[in-house]
């Protein structure tokens, strides 16, 4: 099925970018620099009167208009809760999304800052506080349009896509599928009775910057309904006693504003396994985009799939599995108690 805007998106050039920004009501200087993003097309654009802004073109058919608008609405809620995030600029009549040749785009302020390469003790506490406040606002009402971080969306459907399109070598498929199903079962068991709410969804150090005013979370493009720990495991270290110490410092800040049970960390390894599968399917689904073969030259090779299979097997072998055969077909979520004030690219891994 032909995706509207796909060809234009894949061939997006500087003239088209500048024209879109001008159509949104800005006078451009001609400066246009492509930023590091694979999932969307993002550009740093200079303005004629001085200053710069960022324009983001959303990948066609990934999110609906309502899903994009809900991202923007969530960011507005967070801003109103005095949480440092970057929200899109309102354009004519207050709209935040425009369309050009079948693709949606949004104008953002250019937020200056530097990436946080390492979280020291002070930053761990601050990050914990910020995420707790983000999650409190995220839990204050349900998402209407965004997807849920569940087995269907992040495990079963990606696995089915890989199988139906025969991406894996035939001799590896059975091993890969068995390891995936073990991870699915473990996820289902570990997520029982765990609260799900609106979360950042892709919370790693590449989406946390240090500004002149302090820490700031960016890029809520992957915002979903999911468990709080999904926003922890790519941000925090896991594995040794030093990692445990850092996590406890982070939780000191988080628990000032929101409950977090230690047992919820049991979901980390299943989440890691789901990301292995989802990430491979994410690349596979975008392989016709010219930027993907350049970014992932080893994807699809025998060596790639052998390593992916071994990684899944190694991870799955250490996981407990549910004693209920059909546990992975239903993920329970609990109602949460009354809340207070709060919360906070599926791109390259950092």
From TrEMBL:
<dbReference type="InterPro" id="IPR032882">
    <property type="entry name" value="SrkA/RdoA"/>
</dbReference>
<keyword id="KW-0963">Cytoplasm</keyword>
<feature type="active site" description="Proton acceptor">
    <location>
        <position position="202"/>
    </location>
</feature>
<keyword id="KW-0597">Phosphoprotein</keyword>
<keyword id="KW-0808">Transferase</keyword>
<keyword id="KW-0418">Kinase</keyword>
<feature type="site" description="ATP">
    <location>
        <position position="37"/>
    </location>
</feature>
<feature type="binding site">
    <location>
        <position position="219"/>
    </location>
    <ligand>
        <name>Mg(2+)</name>
    </ligand>
</feature>
<feature type="binding site">
    <location>
        <position position="207"/>
    </location>
    <ligand>
        <name>Mg(2+)</name>
    </ligand>
</feature>
<dbReference type="InterPro" id="IPR011009">
    <property type="entry name" value="Kinase-like_dom_sf"/>
</dbReference>
<feature type="region of interest" description="Disordered">
    <location>
        <begin position="316"/>
        <end position="335"/>
    </location>
</feature>
<dbReference type="GO" id="GO:0005737">
    <property type="term" value="C:cytoplasm"/>
</dbReference>
<comment type="similarity">
    <text>Belongs to the SrkA/RdoA protein kinase family.</text>
</comment>
<dbReference type="GO" id="GO:0000287">
    <property type="term" value="F:magnesium ion binding"/>
</dbReference>
<protein>
    <recommendedName>
        <fullName>Stress response kinase A</fullName>
        <ecNumber>2.7.11.1</ecNumber>
    </recommendedName>
</protein>
<dbReference type="GO" id="GO:0106310">
    <property type="term" value="F:protein serine kinase activity"/>
</dbReference>
<feature type="active site">
    <location>
        <position position="219"/>
    </location>
</feature>
<keyword id="KW-0547">Nucleotide-binding</keyword>
<dbReference type="Pfam" id="PF01636">
    <property type="entry name" value="APH"/>
</dbReference>
<keyword id="KW-0067">ATP-binding</keyword>
<comment type="function">
    <text>A protein kinase that phosphorylates Ser and Thr residues. Probably acts to suppress the effects of stress linked to accumulation of reactive oxygen species. Probably involved in the extracytoplasmic stress response.</text>
</comment>
<dbReference type="InterPro" id="IPR002575">
    <property type="entry name" value="Aminoglycoside_PTrfase"/>
</dbReference>
<feature type="domain" description="Aminoglycoside phosphotransferase">
    <location>
        <begin position="38"/>
        <end position="257"/>
    </location>
</feature>
<comment type="subunit">
    <text>Monomer.</text>
</comment>
<keyword id="KW-0346">Stress response</keyword>
<dbReference type="GO" id="GO:0005524">
    <property type="term" value="F:ATP binding"/>
</dbReference>
<keyword id="KW-0479">Metal-binding</keyword>
<keyword id="KW-0723">Serine/threonine-protein kinase</keyword>
<keyword id="KW-0460">Magnesium</keyword>
<dbReference type="GO" id="GO:0004674">
    <property type="term" value="F:protein serine/threonine kinase activity"/>
</dbReference>
């Amino acid at each position: 099925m032909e995706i509207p805007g796909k060809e234009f998106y894949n061939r997006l050039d500087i003239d088209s970018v500048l024209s879109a920004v001008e159509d949104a009501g800005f006078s451009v200087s001609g400066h246009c620099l492509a930023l590091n993003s694979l999932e969307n097309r993002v550009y740093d654009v200079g303005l004629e009167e001085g200053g710069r802004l960022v324009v983001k073109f959303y990948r066609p058919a990934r999110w609906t208009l309502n899903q994009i608008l809900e991202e923007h609405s969530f960011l507005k809620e967070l801003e109103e809760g005095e949480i440092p995030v970057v929200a899109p600029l309102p354009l004519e009549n207050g709209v935040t999304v425009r369309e050009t040749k079948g693709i949606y785009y949004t104008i953002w302020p250019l937020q200056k800052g530097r990436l946080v390469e390492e979280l020291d003790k002070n930053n761990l506490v601050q990050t914990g506080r910020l995420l707790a406040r983000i999650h409190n606002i995220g839990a204050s009402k349900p998402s209407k349009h965004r997807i849920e971080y569940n087995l269907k969306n992040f495990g079963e459907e990606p696995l089915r896509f890989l199988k139906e399109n025969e991406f894996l070598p035939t001799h590896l498929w059975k091993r890969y599928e068995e390891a995936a199903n073990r991870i699915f079962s473990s996820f289902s068991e570990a997520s029982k009775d765990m609260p799900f709410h609106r979360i950042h969804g892709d919370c790693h150090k590449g989406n946390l910057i240090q500004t002149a005013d302090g820490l700031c979370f960016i890029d809520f493009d992957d915002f979903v309904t999911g468990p709080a720990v999904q926003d922890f495991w790519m941000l925090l270290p896991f594995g040794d006693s030093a990692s445990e110490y850092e996590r406890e410092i982070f939780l000191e800040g988080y628990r000032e504003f929101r409950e977090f049970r230690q047992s919820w960390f049991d979901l980390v390894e299943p989440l890691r396994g789901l990301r292995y599968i989802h990430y491979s399917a994410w690349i596979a689904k975008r392989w016709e985009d010219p930027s993907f073969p350049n970014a992932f030259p080893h994807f699809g090779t025998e060596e790639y799939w052998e390593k992916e299979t071994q990684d899944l097997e190694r991870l799955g072998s250490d996981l407990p599995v549910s004693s209920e055969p059909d546990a992975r077909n239903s993920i329970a979520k609990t109602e949460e108690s009354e809340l207070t004030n709060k919360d906070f690219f599926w791109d390259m891994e950092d």
